[in-house]
Amino acid sequence: MAMPQRDDTIEAIKRLDALLEYAFMHGGEEEAARLREELRKLTDEV
Fold this sequence. Notes:
Layout: H1 3-25, H2 29-45
């Protein structure tokens, strides 16, 4: 994986992780499930 692409992937993982934590803290269970799936897809690509 090229460095810029890897950096973008890392930033996307960080962003999704923060959004997932926010969703959990605020009771957004459906949003958390959606974000968890998106994060899983992104990490499966790596």
